[in-house]
Request: fold
Amino acid sequence: MTHARTGGRARDRGQVAIEYLGFLPILVLVGMAVVQLGLIAYTAQQAGTAARAGARSASLGESAAGACAAAVSSWLADGTDCPPSEGADEVTVTASVHIPTIVPGWDFGDATRTATMPLDH
Reply:
């Protein structure tokens, strides 16, 4: 009777490994989604920083585009656009930073933030 019991366990030896291999793609997808959400949040934060720096620079009569690009992390600077629009006594800069993706084929567009500063010049 003990022999039958041991034979049953021998057949189940690789079951845990097979179940782990089946669950691994789900874990990878969840991990990639968490990293992508972090990239989206970080890019939005960088767009806000770029908009404030660009508005500050434009309010002093300097280049908004240069200040925007300098305020953003170097690996995001290529996808940054900061056109200023000047009013009577204030300047508004809208910064758009392209959101990088870790999954080919997905496009999350741009993170856009706006900042307004009074003119000082």
